[in-house]
Amino acid sequence: MLAGTGVRPPNMAVPVTRCSTSNRPALLVINVSCIEGLVRDRAAQGEARLKQALGGFIIGGIVRSYLPQTWTIMTEQESVTIHADGQGNIRVLKGIAPTRDGNIKIRHDLLANGIQTGRSPPPGSYQVDFYSQRGRTAFNQLKSSFGL
Question: What domains can be seen in the chain, in order of their start residue?
Fold first, then answer.
């Protein structure tokens, strides 16, 4: 920053905390999958909520009927698979699962920004393919959790 101005000089590197959605150079290069790390953090929060929902008698029965669920998120840079089992455990794995309830194809920067800020990407900027009716219903209930 320029002293007392709050203005960053041109070409000054921007530190990366997890993954950068900016085209500006970073001070630090992190050798970890950007989306995988962001999705893991969000999945851990989702797992706690899912297990709480499964504990209820009526709601738990409804939620349980939509499990297990497996989804793959694909960007131009990486793919991750999210799997929620019948007990509410959520795993995030690198790559594409051979069988799944759906795919989400989205630009890397839009997904990272959506997860980090909670702001949805513009309509039409991502594609969702459903392979099951359960997947369609679950996606419509949970999409905001991933900034979609």
Answer: 34-146 (3.30.1050.10)
